[in-house]
Amino acid sequence: MGRELLKANWELLEGFASDQSKGIEHPPVQKPVPEGTPVLPLPPPDIRPECYVTDAIEGRRSVRKYSDEPLELSELSWLLWATQGVQRVIRDGIATFRTVPSGGARHPFETYLFINDVTGIDPGLYRYLPVDHALARIGDRVDPARVTEGCHGQVFAGECPVCFAWSAIPYRTEWRYGPVSHKVILLDAGHVCQNLYLACTALGLGTCAIGAYDQKKMDSLLSLDGNDELVVYVAPVGRVP
After folding, report:
1. Measured CA angle at 233 (ends 230, 237), to 5 deg
2. Which of 12, 182, 216, 235 sits between 20 and 30 A of 164, alpha carbons compared?
């Protein structure tokens, strides 16, 4: 595939019948939560940082060293809203409007969190539920060394207060765009991570986008099959020293 993925191959849709056009039921906009999974409501994302957008853009840097201070739950709530927050569910649940753009409003991502040190929440493995603005606790704390190993030895990924890992569920976009979906998905991932950078900068926090991760190890840490759902981006977050 290589460089072909970079090209705008919309001609592939000529004569193509998508599952949407066939009337096949749309995939859920949010991955269902297994029965019995603890769900923790998040505080409202009502932080209003005293930071002009120009300052956030100018101050944005990749930060790989963090202080020992924990994140506040209110800060995490705002970061989650800034990156995948749902503003409105539209067309009888077919799509959502969110704080980031997405091709066809398909928003193919799920947000997983390796939480080590966030005030007001127990360490563990969580998944963000954007429609509910809540966290589903899906596992105990993951050994930071395993997260570091999954990120090819980048220690800050395992030892930060919270590490974001975004997975893609390709079918959410494929349902509408079929063979041209995958470039769209990767473009969408960039939108999400840039919002995290700007939101972190506005709060005096730091992050660093990680594309150099071990696919199988990171998928395994999140119990993903690597095909119908797979990790596409990782970003540790901490307080700037």
Report:
1. 130
2. 182
Q: Which CATH architecture has domain 40-239?
A: 3-Layer(aba) Sandwich (3.40)
Residue 235 · residue 163 · CB < 8 Å: yes
Q: Which distant-in-sequence residues (6+ apart) come within 8 Å of 85 by Cβ?
A: 45, 98, 99, 130, 133
- Identify the pLDDT of residue 150: 98
Kindly report the number of other CB atoms within 10 A of residue 37's CB atom. Answer: 12
Residues of the chain under the 70 pLDDT cut = none
**Residue 193: left (phi > 0), alpha (psi -120 to 50), or beta?**
alpha
What are 158-184's pLDDT values in tens digits? Answer: 999 999 999 999 999 999 999 999 999
Q: How far is CA 162 from CA 40, 61, 198, 208, 222, in A?
A: 16, 18, 17, 12, 15
Q: Please, how many CA atoms are within 13 Å of residue 109, restricted to the half-sphere of its CB?
A: 31
Token pair, residue 46, equals 């009502």
- The predicted model scores a pTM of 0.97
Which of 238, 220, 30, 199 has its CA nearest to residue 130? 30
d(CA 231, CA 118): 23
Tokens of 192: 């999400």
* Residues 47-78 as b or e (16 or more Cβ within 10 Å = b): beeeeeeeebeeebeebbebeeebbbbbbbbb
Residue 31 gets which letter from DSSP? P
